[in-house]
């Protein structure tokens, strides 16, 4: 089993290397070609600024790129594209221009990529049908409305701004020349903000076709008049109208909530100051349309021909009006995106608002820590033999100390904001799909990074024999990234940090304590990382911590305090006391100096239960968050563990996190100390009996000591009172 497991891990690393190599240009017979993998994650590249904004539920506006490649000549195309992005930013949203660069669909283009498309001599016009070919050949091109909708939806962007959409061409009832934009609107749930339909098309039949596709069409403004691109009134009407960004946002949110899988078309009339020129352009268009027939122009060449002809006949006025129209759409679309983001946040806050007997609001707890994909290998024998195959089973689950605690809190009727980082890979897709019940808006998806993976090998008793981890992504949970959530952190009743995050990030959050009077819970992840806050005075800002005995020993050692002697050749593991009483006395001795600053220490002792050390209050330990540091009487209280047989134990990787999460939930719900600890013990037992670190069937009822009578509760024991 071990050999196979190590080979499996080796294979994972090879797959990562092959994935990277497969995306490079390979040479064959002197010709360059681009090889891609047949997985959508390898074909889409989302710019970090876009993925971060989407993850945080901030407003993002998707923009197409055929306006760059086919809409106007260089350098007007480049300057217009940059100005549109600037308008989006000025309105408070993040622009995400979509294009295909050398066989990769890019959502959010860099300045170099914009320049590349703008200067292309023979760029491709990429619609839905063209995507497979362009990707397979490693080509570049501008995305049409339909292709941009696909990419935007794939990236989680609900609002897309363009100039005008395609439609049913004139005489389309005979030629069946109908733009793919219309069918895309019928099957992709995204809001498209445009100046209506290009006036060179059959607008009436286009609206009929959109109705058949089930597309909600609304005019933006006081009237239902449907615009004709260069003119505010086409002679046709929309089914409804919205007066402002807020109304538009509510319409989009309703459409998305219904799950109809069809889009919304918001038609924005050309600004009044350009309407007069628009009428002149409209007359010129009729001349250009006549020229199409006389010169035999057909198919996808019709639109570029007419636009160029009209531009020539109007001596550039159509280009100026076109640019002004696009700028206006970008402004309106960005305002709608911002209103939609605000509307959804307010709706979420209302639905999660605190009611009598209900959980706290989502901002009352923030968890900052790691998120992993776990592979758990359990042997069927007590002893595992290295260098040979051992009988056992392997399963995949989702872990990470921070993720586990946030998961536990979420299942126990709290709504923690979880701040973390993953790669933009298949593993992250699996994680986000599994964590739909959690608020993962604070999780950044980073390009060119691997989602953290962890592999644990346990014996039949559930004891860890070997652990391997690829955790480099945790270093990306930086002080700068976390500082973006300072507002949420400042209003939280409890902030939980795990030992996976970098020391500067821990120090930064601890530095906020004096400013906001925070209660911070530090959850060590192993003995080596337990010392992170204790490398400086940052630890004095902590309120809670839940180390095991080895981690507690390492903390004391870091502070230069006396610790028990260690086993020969092992630095971090203290000598195991001979009895439970000796274990408790050692734990008390190690905890006492830390309580000069910490509010409470929860020392986990595995099968020996837990030891609570903190402020003495009415015969127990006070777990409720403190408002200020004061001199107090201290005590220690021991709770035995619940009995779990080896046969019941499936996984030990999440028991401590389940205990901590349930204990925090009890604190946040205002339960007394006895109830909080027993909630934690019940959650830990459920974790041990589940293949997942946090049991999927974990609920408040399942850990309510008054409802669970699986065994007689042992009486907690006072070990020490100061």
Q: Largest sheet, described in full?
A: 11 strands, mixed
Radius of gyration: 31 Å
Class by alpha and beta content: alpha/beta
CATH topology (fold) name of the largest domain: UDP-N-acetylmuramoyl-L-alanine:D-glutamate ligase
The CATH class of the largest domain, by name, is: Alpha Beta
Q: How many H/I helical runs? A: 25
Helix content: 25-40%
Fraction in beta strands? 15-25%
Write down the overall mean pLDDT.
Answer: 83
Are there runs of 5+ residues with pLDDT below 50, and where?
Answer: 1-42, 351-362, 566-574
Distance, first to last CA: 51 Å
The CATH superfamily of the largest domain is known as Ribokinase
Please give the CATH architecture of the largest domain.
3-Layer(aba) Sandwich
Tertiary shape: elongated
Give the tally of β-strands: 30
Instruction: Give the tally of structural domains.
Output: 2
Seen as an oligomer or otherwise, the chain set is single chain
Task: Write up this protein.
The protein is α/β, with parallel strands linked by helices and 722 residues long. The protein has 2 domains: 58-343, Indigoidine synthase domain (Indigoidine synthase fold), CATH 3.40.1790; 359-721, Ribokinase (UDP-N-acetylmuramoyl-L-alanine:D-glutamate ligase), CATH 3.40.1190.20. The protein has 25 helices and 30 strands. Strands 3, 4, 5, 6, 7, 8, 9, 10, 11, 14 and 15 form an 11-stranded mixed beta sheet that branches. Strands 16, 19, 20, 23, 24, 25, 26, 27, 28, 29 and 30 form an 11-stranded mixed beta sheet that branches. Strands 18-17-21-22 form a 4-stranded mixed beta sheet. Helix 7 (131-137) links the parallel strand 7 and strand 8 (141-143). The protein is elongated, with a radius of gyration of 31 Å.
